[in-house]
Amino acid sequence: MAIEKATFGAGCFWGVETRFNEITGVIDTAVGYEGGNLEHPTYKEVCTDRTGHAEVVEVTFDPSRVSYETLLDAFFALHDPTQVNRQGPDWGTQYRSVIFTHTNEQFAQARAKIAELSAAGSYRKPIATQVVPSTTFWKAEEYHQKYLEKRGMVSCHI
Fold it and tell me: Fewer CB near the terminus (10 Å): N or C of the chain?
């Protein structure tokens, strides 16, 4: 079985992780931080909005069961990609809309999806989602992993 990774930032990672876990073909998820300038950042440090990291979900998936395009569709459906550095009541660069791509093909597909949604007029404002090559994924503290599931919750504010 071929396994691939995809990494998405769409605001608070708790609800984002829950949604990706519901998709058939997703093998595992982990929440963490990516895109910043501090090694081994903690949640407390990322929340200062000074490390440059985004809260992200790293999705491990089986491409024979779910396509990257399906994951992109889910990503755009579960948050407002036109908001800059915020989602709902959460604000700061750690809540930015971002896709960290693991291959050139993912990069091209993500850019094409944004162009497709923009051309279709899917949003009233321009899509602000960043598409950048993946850097180092720093796994968040264990208490953040499957946070809502551990508490018997199915969603938060997203």
Answer: N
pTM over 0.85: yes
Contact 130, 10 (CB under 8 A): no
47, 129, 155 from 158: Cα distances, Å: 18, 17, 7
Catalytic annotation on 156?
Answer: no
Model pLDDT for residues 26-52, shown as the tens digit of each residue: 999 999 999 999 999 999 999 999 999
How buried is residue 102: exposed, middle or buried, by Cβ count under 10 Å (0-12/13-18/19+)? middle
Contact 106, 96 (CB under 8 A): no
Rounded to whole angstroms, what are the CA distances from 92 to 36, 99, 120, 141? 13, 17, 29, 20
In angstroms, the first-to-last Cα distance of the chain is 33
Q: What's 130's DSSP letter? A: E
Question: H or E stretch including 91?
Answer: strand 90-91
Write out the two tokens for 38: 């501090």
Paired with 50 in beta bridges are none
For the stretch 112-137, pLDDT in tens is 999 999 999 999 999 999 999 999 99
Q: Say which of 6, 10, 12, 74 is annotated catalytic.
A: 12
